[in-house]
Write a structure and sequence with these properties.
FAD/NAD(P)-binding domain; alpha/beta; five-stranded parallel β-sheet
């Protein structure tokens, strides 16, 4: 059994930033990571373009000014996903962060003076826990009749290359950046339908960072205008039967359905602790310091520490992580005194 003052779950951008802040604060911490560093980011297709700039004059991608991404050999204002993963690798190595890899947390329970975490390697105990596991591990598929168990249905998180869809008909479901990027990537290979519940929204008009932005906006509008991507807005999918999608007033035969429909927080490891979640966002209910509203000394970071829509993005949540670690440091110090 291993005991620490702080255990951080996840070594994505939020987890690594928290580890760096904990290390600077002199906290006895350990990061538990189910795979390699930033495993969920490694599962994303390598050629995905990040939507946040990584330049000295406008840096929305770095997780700390102590080691910014633009000091690496990144020559693009918007880096690729594989470059971001390389940055996270180098960030971890540069600061020699204390990370235990290939260690999956299977169960968390509250005990006297802290928490006990069961993993597939060992049992860990900690006075405080910071959950920074993100949400990429729990893709959301809409609960539409015939959808979730259908072998032709996948999530955009699983999309790696358009080549495997060559000369096929593909339906992409969703209205955000992932849906736009997936549809654009497929356009030269497959016959693409883009189905959305509402009209598409674009950052250039709304200034909402979660709306379609960057090069995706111009590419998507051009492809739709030329009918290369067949755009069906305000579409209600009634059911899916094998390879046929039934929507209001018509049906479409397809070879594949890709759902770019977001993610849900995976809180299954907490078991009987029953972490309260917001009815609207489905994320944990937290205090201003990102502490669970129901369990003292349990904190969240990254997208799981949802405050507003921008906190889903790196440059949004990275502003809050240092303050959360400061609160954890104060809590540990007070408990020892």
């Amino acid at each position: 059994m291993t005991e620490k003052d702080l255990i951080i779950i996840g070594s994505g951008p939020a987890g690594l930033q928290a580890a760096h802040e904990a290390q600077k604060a002199g906290i006895d911490y350990l990061v538990l990571e189910k795979g390699h560093i930033a495993q969920s980011w490694r599962d994303i297709r390598e050629d995905m373009v990040m939507l946040s700039p990584c330049l000295p004059q406008r840096d929305w991608t770095s997780i700390s000014v102590d080691f910014p991404i633009w000091k690496m050999d990144v020559k693009r204002p918007f880096c690729y996903a594989y470059e971001f993963v390389k940055y996270l690798d180098e960030f971890s190595s540069h600061f020699d962060l204390n990370i235990k890899l290939n260690c999956s947390v299977t169960h968390i329970q509250k005990i006297e003076n802290g928490f006990e975490l069961q993993t597939d390697q060992d049992i860990f105990r900690s006075k405080t826990v910071l959950v920074a596991s993100g949400f990429f591990g729990n893709p959301f598929i809409p609960d539409i009749p015939g959808m979730r168990q259908n072998p032709i249905v996948s999530h955009s998180h699983q999309f790696k290359t358009a080549e495997s869809f060559r000369n096929k008909r593909v339906i992409v479901i969703g209205s955000g950046n992932s849906a736009a990027e997936t549809a654009i990537s497929l356009a030269g290979y497959a016959q693409v339908y883009l189905l959305t519940r509402n009209e598409l929204e674009f950052f250039s008009r709304t200034k909402n960072l979660c709306d379609i932005r960057g090069i995706s906006e111009s590419f998507l509008l051009e492809l739709i205008s030329m009918d290369i991507i067949r755009y069906l807005p305000n579409t209600q999918i009634e059911r899916v039967e094998e390879n046929v999608v039934y929507i209001t007033g018509r049906q479409i035969e397809t070879n594949a359905i890709i759902c770019a429909t977001g993610y849900n927080a995976d809180l299954s490891a907490f078991g009987e602790m029953e972490i309260p979640t917001d009815k609207r966002t489905k994320f944990p209910v937290i205090t201003s310091s990102a502490e669970s509203s129901s369990y003292s000394d349990l904190f969240f970071a990254g997208p799981l520490a949802y405050r507003k829509i921008s906190s889903m993005l790196i440059h949004g949540f990275s502003k809050f992580v240092p303050d959360t670690v400061k609160e954890i440091k104060n809590r540990i110090t007070n408990n020892k005194s």
